[in-house]
UniProtKB/TrEMBL annotation:
Source taxonomy: Eukaryota, Viridiplantae, Streptophyta, Embryophyta, Tracheophyta
Family: Belongs to the peptidase A1 family.
Biased composition (Polar residues): 422-437
Transmembrane intervals: 562-584
Peptidase A1 domain boundaries: 54-393
A Pfam family of this chain: TAXi_N
GO-annotated molecular function: aspartic-type endopeptidase activity
Name of the protein this chain belongs to: Peptidase A1 domain-containing protein
Region: Disordered, residue numbers: 417-437
Active-site residues (renumbered): D72, D268
Domain of life: Eukaryota
Organism: Spirodela intermedia (Intermediate duckweed)
């Protein structure tokens, strides 16, 4: 499965270098040589900081019903809320309605499954470490991955939820796509049908950009991909053979056995951060703090209820973080090492500009080493189940799959540091298609943004659009990967052949700004992919966009009191001067008393 997420200039053509045959061979190598297997392409949405997970879109049933599912290598079942669910939260999409799918069939009770009280239908139940749970019945229907997928719809078993608790109840995503090892896993079912190879890959976008790609099926690894053995018998999860951790080239004084406690070292795409056993965490924390001690200032975290370890003074440009924070290496049993840049173990402080916090925490009550999505940002991770290994390849995940799809050879050159597609000096991203007032310079440098505005032309009439404004805002929030509360309607005008809608994206929650990287991500998604609205709204097109830098808005906020006082003083002084002038004029210029018979000069009548 392959998914594009790149900015590409209008009418641009892809060119191979002079040694084109060599690059084409490498590209074919990466794409894989098993022509008998189909592939599907799907985009990843959301990001770690805003949502805590990445989602993909899955279509179920006939006609298809669409769902946003968290991609989770630690889960073995795929499930969505059922229309009959009495304890399900409010999620991104409507619940699945089995009675509206002509191809749906319940999985009848049998000896291989747990059954409902009536012994009619198979059931499932899943509980998670954060004490959330999901339970329901099992059904079978056609699933597909959208128009970009070469994989035709396939029948698969999935869960139809009747109950949710904890985070599963409150999250915005509809459900879970289970990619773990197990007969109910989407991977196991598709592999058993023989339609894909026994391998899948995930690629998560970088800090502040989000998005990414998922590849279901095999690809041949790049020559410089780093591998770790993954023992399928060690635990039900995807394990790594981690032996050492190095900070700035120096090995931490740890026994290798510390990474083999309980479930060992587990790589879990559904977990946000990373968690080390107590001794390993203490050693890691101390080494990082020692490295930055003379360079940065330690500050409190964004949430006082957590004891986050945060530092200020590093600047807001992610590509410069390696100048301050150390490189971290994870060394596997075969001697190969996965190098982590700062964005692979830090998250951005949500309240202090240029501050970052450690995204690796202490796993106090569990000796398992758990590596979540933060560890593999901007890293292609290949779960090669057939060969019992997991591969890592540093790259720009926001661009990976579209370049692979279109045969762009530059894909095969890893990017050592995150790049900014609007920074003017980026060498990895082509210039985006720009609107009349949109310009790369508007996001150049390290500006933070107070507001993003954009105009969309929709072929539906204004009167028909008005009742659906809230629904439109939800679709925009989903496609731009922001919270719905950040999307606001500015104006709605009738135009020939439709309507022109102006929207704004404001900072989330109590934040005063949208970070530079987050703004780049929003604009990138807006320009390259637009907003995908249901067919009932007709066609839509991006007309214009602009950003408002933080300084343009904060200057007024910073000087507001001074200006108000100054204007007040001026008004008071002006009125006082007027009354004084009027009073003296009245005294000096008034008519004096004269006797009736006194002489006075002739007055000439002046013409108008």
């Amino acid at each position: 499965m392959i998914l594009p997420l790149i900015l590409r200039a209008a009418n641009s053509t892809l060119r191979f270098p002079a040694e084109g045959d060599h690059w084409r061979r490498r590209l074919r190598h990466l794409q894989g040589s098993d022509d008998r297997k189909q592939s599907a392409r799907t985009r990843l949405y959301d990001d770690l900081l805003s949502n805590g997970y990445y989602t993909t879109r899955l279509l179920i049933g006939t006609p298809p019903q669409e769902f946003a599912l968290i991609v989770d290598s630690g889960s073995t079942v795929t499930y969505v809320p059922c229309s009959t669910c009495e304890q399900c939260g409010k999620h991104q999409d409507p619940r699945f309605q089995p009675d509206k799918s002509s191809t749906y069939q319940p999985v009848k009770c049998n000896a291989d499954c747990a059954c409902d009280d009536e012994k009619n239908q198979c059931t499932y139940e899943r509980q998670y470490a954060e004490r959330s749970s999901s339970s329901g019945v099992l059904g079978e229907d056609l699933i597909s991955f959208g128009k970009e997928s070469a994989l035709v719809p396939q029948r698969a078993v999935f869960g139809c939820e009747n109950s949710e608790t904890g985070d599963l109840y409150t999250q915005r995503a509809d459900g879970i796509m289970g990619l773990g090892r197990g007969r109910l896993s989407v991977m196991d079912q598709l592999v058993e049908k023989g339609v894909i190879s026994d391998s899948f890959s995930l690629c998560y976008g970088g800090m502040g950009v989000g998005g990414g790609a998922m590849v279901l099926g095999g690809i041949s690894p790049p020559p410089d991909m780093v591998f770790s053995y993954s023992d399928p018998n060690r635990s039900p999860y995807y394990n790594l053979d981690l032996k050492e951790i190095h900070i700035a080239g120096k090995k931490l004084p740890l026994d290798a056995r510390i990474f083999n406690g309980k479930y060992g070292t587990v790589l879990d795409s559904g977990t946000t951060y990373a968690y080390l056993p107590t001794t390993a965490f203490d050693s890691f924390r101390d080494a990082v703090m020692k490295h930055v001690d003379s360079l940065l200032k330690q500050i409190p975290g964004p949430d006082p209820s957590y004891k986050d370890i945060c530092f200020s003074g590093a600047g807001s440009n992610v590509s410069h973080l390696s100048e301050t924070f150390p490189e971290v290496d994870m060394v596997f049993g075969n001697g190969q090492k996965l190098s982590l840049s700062p964005e692979n173990y830090l998250f951005r402080h949500s309240k202090v500009l240029g501050a970052y916090c450690l995204g690796i925490f202490k796993n106090e009550n569990d000796p398992t080493t758990l590596l979540g999505g933060i560890i593999v940002r901007n890293t292609l991770v290949m779960y090669d189940r057939a060969n019992q290994k997991v591969g890592f390849w540093k790259t720009n995940c926001s661009q990976l799959l579209e370049k692979l799809h279109f045969g762009d050879s530059s894909l095969l050159t890893p990017a050592p540091a995150p790049s900014d597609p609007f920074s003017g000096n980026s060498t990895t991203a082509p210039q985006p298609v720009l609107s009349p007032s949109g310009s790369p310079d508007m996001l150049a440098g390290e500006w933070n943004v107070s507001l993003i505005t954009f105009d969309i032309h929709v072929s539906m009439n204004k009167s028909d659009l008005v009742p659906h404004i809230s629904e439109l805002a939800e679709y925009i929030a989903r496609d731009l990967e922001v919270n719905a509360s950040q999307v606001s309607l500015i104006s709605l005008k009738s135009e020939s052949q439709g309507s022109l809608i102006r929207w704004s994206i404001s900072p989330s929650g109590s934040a005063d700004f949208i970070s530079h990287d987050a703004a780049v991500g929003i604009i990138s998604r807006l320009i390259e992919h637009g907003v995908h609205l249901p067919e009932k709204f007709g066609t839509s097109k991006l007309v214009d966009w602009k950003v408002e830098h933080l300084s343009e808005r904060t200057w007024w906020r910073g000087h507001q009191s001074v200006i108000v006082v100054g204007v007040s003083v001026f008004v008071v002084f002006s009125f006082s001067a007027f009354f004084v002038w009027h009073f003296w004029r009245h005294r000096l210029g008034g008519t004096a008393y004269r006797p009736v018979d006194s002489a006075h000069p002739e007055q000439e009548l002046q013409p108008l």
